[in-house]
Amino acid sequence: MPPKKENTKKIEKEKQKIVEDKTFGLKNKNKSKSVQRYIKGVQQQVFQTKKKPEEAKRKEEKEKEKLNQQKLLLNSIYQKTEKVKKINENSAAYDPKKSKESQKIDIYTDVRDSKNDKENDTIDQWDINKLTEVINIRHKNVNKTDIICKYFLSAVENKQYGWFWVCPNGGDNCKYKHCLPQGYVLKKSEPTSNEKDEKPLEDIIEEERTQYINNGTPVTLESFKKWLLERKEKKNIKKDDQKEKTEKKGKTTTLSGKELFTYDPTLFIDDDNAANTNEYEDLFYDDDDNKEDSPEKKNGINGDINENGKREDDVPINTELFIDDLDDLDELD
Fold first, then answer.
1. Is 263 helix (H, G, I), strand (E, B) or coil?
2. pTM of the entire structure?
3. Domain total in the chain
């Protein structure tokens, strides 16, 4: 044991030397915080290299102890429940669909055959009819028919047959069968004549397509381009004919915007100043606005201005025309 302590002392001395070498010349600068942080970082790197794996081992041991404690707790909890009855793995789980199917009445079996209750079926409660039935069953002399009851069939087709359905032909005493044979198809489920005759849409399209294969020409790029050129030529010919007819009648033809552009594209302005409003100021200029260069103020609207500052076309105003109107206004007060 003592040699191990010597080894630890040697390791600590070596670590101190490493720290001194890395922090050589920084002892006089201990006042600065950055130097102190650097020295602490070096010491932690050197002295705590072997502490990290030891701490990891300690954490693993603690986690193992926690897991063992949890297992012991679970075992102690479930000790008393060991004798609980376990469900058999082979037992089928509950299926709601199957339960509904079992609740539905079976069309292919006669319910009257399964109505004989064994608990109440005793000799003391038998009637004469019951005795005759038992005797006939023993001797196999029962007069049974394979004919299906017509009332039963109509009830099944109209969705009226169920657990509470009673046959109008004597109820349970009806001699005909109240079940369908296997493979029997009802009228409502039979395909109609129209459905049999109707063909699918794909077959009809194929039949019509085969009729036009021999007569038509295959469409290619060249044939399509030719067709477009011919169509454009026909349109141009029609337009020329219409123009000639209108000219003969003496009517003037108005050109569209597209035609004007093709005729003379310089008529159209497509620049930044295409919609400049300064060019249209004079058109929308009002009389009340003061404009220095306006010819209306210099020369008047309809004539020139005299030396006295009056227009030649000015008309004198007759004030007597407005006297009556002023009297009417006084009466309103």
1. helix
2. 0.27
3. 2
Q: How distant is the alpha carbon of residue 203 from its chain centre? A: 34
∠ CA 158-160-166 to the nearest 5 degrees?
130
The pLDDT of residue 20 is above 60? yes
* 112 neighbors 169 (Cβ within 8 angstroms): no
Q: Which of 148, 165, 196 is the last residue of a domain?
A: 196
In sequence order, which residues have a C-beta less than 8 Å from that of residue 188 and are 6 or more positions away?
157
**pLDDT tens sequence across 214-265:** 666 777 899 899 999 999 999 999 988 888 888 777 766 677 778 778 777 7
Q: Are residues 66 and 110 in the same domain?
A: no
Which of 104, 86, 102 lies closest to 94 in space, CA to CA? 102
Tokens for 214, please give them: 């021999």
Q: Which of 161, 196, 231 corresponds to the end of one domain?
A: 196
- Dihedral sign for Cα atoms in the order 287, 290, 296, 301: positive
Cβ atoms of 311 and 304 closer than 8 Å: yes
Measure the CA–CA gap between 152 and 166, rounded to whole angstroms: 9
The C-alpha atoms of residue 150 and residue 152 are separated, in whole angstroms, by: 5
Domain that holds residue 45: 2-73
